[in-house]
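Students often ask why inverse folding is considered easier than folding. One informal answer: many sequences map to the same fold, so there is more than one right answer. In these notes we will look at a single instance of the problem. The structure comes first.
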């Protein structure tokens, strides 16, 4: 795998787990209501921010990653 693919493979599960845990705690301890759409947006944003803050030099912006995650993964796989 390319370096950027490996990075995304590491970041995605962690971002999903961390975001789900934080959302659950917010619902349990602060009385918020579960919101799947909001959780998905938080996960995508965390993936983008964590990936951009890594030493691997991603050529995509945070906005590109958040709004076009599927296309970014496709581009990473097709870049030689």
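Output (designed amino acids):
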């Amino acid at each position: 795998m390319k370096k950027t693919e490996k990075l995304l493979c590491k970041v995605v599960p962690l971002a999903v787990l961390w975001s789900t845990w934080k959302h659950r705690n917010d619902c349990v301890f602060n009385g918020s209501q579960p919101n799947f759409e909001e959780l998905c947006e938080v996960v995508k944003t965390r993936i983008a921010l964590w990936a951009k803050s890594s030493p691997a030099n991603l050529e995509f912006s945070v906005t590109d990653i958040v709004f076009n995650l599927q296309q970014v993964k496709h581009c990473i796989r097709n870049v030689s």
